[in-house]
């Protein structure tokens, strides 16, 4: 059996603690690590990423991974940032300081007591009936009115997307439309898909609905995938008018829409409705995750499915994992049932709204002319469009040397839509007091790169 990434993480931490791996020591390469730990390269990558996110190791572009140095007070920082701490705008998990660890521990203990006999058998493939009842109640607050029988508990919303991409749909069509850009998980799910995959640009002003209608009318489209609010990576949200129009088009041309509402809980504006609220025909497939608002390690989400897809979806999901983890389902059930989730989401909305305001203020203050950015009310994702002469990967490498980690967004585009000058940022885990200084470093870095580019051009003349 392949070694779990958690085991690799723990082994490396123990070696650091015992002094076998000292600050500045280089770790094995991904290939060497896979051989040493007898596992896949992806497992080593995941382990290193976990250690990097907790600042126990750091990456040096074109070189490898190194054990982090310790500063006074025990704080760890990679030498790639010089004397500066790395401000991480790449990692987009929930704010660690606001995570309900203790509350969820109570819920987990209650789940163990409640389901201790069931742990010795396989659970329902569709998800615990009692959890689905609580989810149906929870969804009503999001204007998603459905019954437990149509709710399918999944091991993270990405599992639902993977399954749906591969299923034949009741409309008998075979092609897919996705917004551009789109999060990397969806790009990976579409890799190797046998039908046509069409892209449609999602910008600050919304989407070209006439072009979308043309795809629906002429493109033999089985489904259109969209994040209806707090889009990944731009942070944009569709207006209610646009959502209604998309639903009308889906009904007219017999197209399904997969509505990914992965952060709908964070939308504090009661008048914003999901597409599902406008759909009496059953063409909207509603998908939701709890990873971004609670604990990523929870790995639970849901899909609300029309009757024509329910049996095929359950068969495909059961073939992949039999059922989603019983104890985490039970803990989420207790968390929803007790009212803890409602209180938690109220706190999270305030945190991310504040972070988003600080980010937008810093953008307007520190980014140089010629730099674009998405105006988003989400504290999770925004994008920076670099001046035309700069490339995202080179800029990200340079900014890391200045103590800022950002995410180049090239992998979030279909090949024909590929953008080389876009960075994705998240402030979900960045302390409020570091947002302004981090964006200032980015702005200064962009100016320096532009200056260097200008000097090269002058010399070449």
From TrEMBL:
Coiled coil: none annotated. Its cofactor is pyridoxal 5'-phosphate. The keyword Transferase applies. One of its GO terms (molecular function) is DNA binding. Keywords: Aminotransferase, DNA-binding, Pyridoxal phosphate, Transcription, Transcription regulation, Transferase. InterPro entries: Aminotransferase_I/II_large (IPR004839), HTH_trans_reg/aminotransferase (IPR051446), PyrdxlP-dep_Trfase (IPR015424), PyrdxlP-dep_Trfase_major (IPR015421), Tscrpt_reg_HTH_GntR (IPR000524), WH-like_DNA-bd_sf (IPR036388), WH_DNA-bd_sf (IPR036390). It comes from the Bacteria. Residues 2-70 form the HTH gntR-type domain. In the C-terminal section; belongs to the class-I pyridoxal-phosphate-dependent aminotransferase family. This is DNA-binding transcriptional MocR family regulator. It comes from Paenibacillus qinlingensis.
